[in-house]
């Protein structure tokens, strides 16, 4: 069931003349997250949104057939799974508001004309599947995901804390060379460094670094969707 947003507040003369510590323009997931943390820190926060619903790209709306709810933009939730907002339930989304994540398995699938290669939450299942096509690439996948975990565990915490210089941490890491190369490479170029089979080349869009993070997050946290849709 879609969430009813009809009772959300509207801008009135009262709210317009109230003094606020923080005004957040836009109620996308980043804006709402920032607003919630600021409010939890004791700030008086006012969120402005032009649309009739909050959530931005993670909102779920009735857009097609009656009775069906569609995700407006997001199809999966991944990076948020590493966020202390989820791992430590810092905003009470799970304990207070009932957020439940459902694991997807398989998480991805590489589809070609005559073959399909599923990528599972459990690494061993993925290795067994890849081995059916290429034993060499199965071994490469194991090495690749170990490296992905290493890079993810190094870089992800810095995304959820005040901005700081992590160049020294990167320079002293065993993954320093891979990170430097990834910053100037495409995801496909990174994948091609490890795998020979065309079937094992996921056409991941974005930067080279995201290839490492995507599979590192997958191996550590899996891939999820929120129960009841993004707006639930």
Automatic annotation (TrEMBL):
Transmembrane segments: none annotated. InterPro entries: FAD/NAD-bd_sf. GO terms for cellular component: cytosol. It comes from the Eukaryota. Belongs to the carotenoid/retinoid oxidoreductase family. This is FAD dependent oxidoreductase. It comes from Colletotrichum salicis.
